[in-house]
Amino acid sequence: MFFARLSHPADFDGWREAARRAVALGVAPDEMSFVVGEEAPGLFAEPLPEEMPDDAPPIAVAKAFPDLARNMLCHSDPERFLLAYRLLWRLQAEKGLLEVASDDDVIRAREMEKAVYRDAHKMKAFLRFREIETGEGRHYIAWFEPTHHVVELTAPFFMRRFAGMVWSILTPLRSVHWDGADLSFGPGASREDRPKEDAAEDLWLTYYASIFNPARLKVKAMQAEMPKKYWKNLPEATLIEPLIRGAEEASRRMLETAPTLPSLRHERVMEMGEMARAAKVAAVPHGGNQPQTLDEARAEAKHCKACPLWEPATQTVFGKGPEDAPVIFVGEQPGDQEDLAGEPFIGPAGKVFDAALAEAGIDRTQAYVTNAVKHFKFTPRGKRRIHQKPTMGEVKACRFWLEIERDIVKPKLVVALGATAAATVLGKTVTIRDTRSRLIDIGGDTQLLVTVHPAYILRLPDPDAQKRETEAFHADMGLVRRTVPEIALAA
């Protein structure tokens, strides 16, 4: 019988080194034990030899085993070290052991890992620092009572989250200290070592009480996520029960004082009606005469207020190209760069578009390029403006401008770049999958070709998928050139 001594209850590095030696020496699991710190080994146990045998075979483990072992060794089960060693021993002969979901050892190890993850999550969620003044400046101390040995596991999270603070986390099992440069670990502490209060706590309690929403209170769900055993160490716990008791009365007061609002459907119908009326007014410029040239239409569109998008946008981004263009390319809406410059398809998606045209031998200056919606819809995020998909109400309000462009240009082919553009041209919602890469008659001598929007290709995270979609988009542009050969680049 052999034993290995580990320095602390979650000493994965010490266990791994000892376990590798034991496997190399051929020590079976029932002949091996592990002790922590000053624990006494078994009566007849001998220290595991320090040297690895010269003829020891290489240790083989599944790729997932080191992480599983590291996590399960943080469990409080006294048999965790021996269970991890038994798995390592068995993996030498059973390479796919961890894939056997019905194996008792694997089941137990996975359950330990899940319990450790839950405990680590609770520590991140329910740990509260309190500030104290020391001779060296401010020091933040937190007290937490974990079920398992998760201090080593969670310490890097707090190091990253509070890198600019000097802090210590005390638990009954283990303690950790961060001085702004290094983490150091020590033995457990007691509740008496924690600070009792700090100056910021009253502010935190005021904030917590002010954001409490009694109308959304679900006590069972709250206690499932934040069990009562954690309440004793949370400053806000003193408020929880009084807030729960007063929730019903607070909800009643909210209902009595709430304003009466129209239904969402009513607001939507009214919004659509206003947009339609504005569109009708804007569609009859010059006292009822429709623009006869693109320049006239472009000038009228500068003053378009048919939908709310005109207000936050920099300007109207009208189409660009010759009035006798044989093909119209229709996108969804201008982007950030297009909104600033006043020209369609000059941003990142425009570069993908230009590359596809060049690959197909298409002269962009011979085509008319526009968008279904003429104003940039966006959501501010810091200094950036993030594209936001236009609603069908906004698309319908702007559709008459595209119809004017088509009436003036009279193209042989309309290319819809994306589902929004296709829906605008056809007047109904369609899917790219059902309509892509085939010519559709849309009245007169005009055909429609539906393909993806170049921005879709840019957003694909998988390089292989991006390559496939790029090739398919280039193929669609090749079909455009064959259908309308007059837009080919001059030889």
What does this structure look like?
The protein is α/β, with parallel strands linked by helices. The chain folds into four domains: 120 residues, no CATH class; 67 residues, no CATH class; 57 residues, no CATH class; 221 residues, Uracil-DNA glycosylase-like domain (Uracil-DNA Glycosylase, subunit E), CATH 3.40.470.10. It has 19 helices and 15 strands. The strands form four sheets. It has a five-stranded mixed beta sheet, covered by helices on one side. Strands 10-9-13-15-14 form a five-stranded mixed beta sheet, sandwiched between helices. A three-stranded parallel beta sheet has the order 2-1-3, covered by helices on one side. Strand 7 and strand 8 form a beta hairpin. Helix 2 crosses helix 4, helix 3 packs across helix 4 and helix 10 runs parallel beside helix 15. The longest helix has 23 residues. The N and C termini lie far apart (87 Å). About 1% of the residues have low confidence.
Ordered list of secondary-structure elements with their pairings:
Blueprint: E1 2-6, H1 12-24, E2 32-36, E3 46-47, H2 65-72, H3 80-91, H4 104-126, E4 129-134, E5 137-143, H5 151-161, E6 167-170, E7 174-178, E8 183-187, H6 201-211, H7 219-225, H8 237-245, H9 247-257, H10 264-282, H11 285-288, H12 294-301, E9 327-331, H13 336-341, H14 348-360, E10 368-371, E11 378-381, E12 384-387, H15 392-409, E13 413-417, H16 419-426, H17 432-435, E14 439-441, E15 447-451, H18 454-459, H19 463-483
Parallel strand pairs: 1-2, 1-3, 5-6, 9-10, 9-13, 13-15
Antiparallel strand pairs: 4-5, 6-7, 7-8, 11-12, 14-15
Helix pairs in contact: 2-4, 3-4, 10-15, 14-19
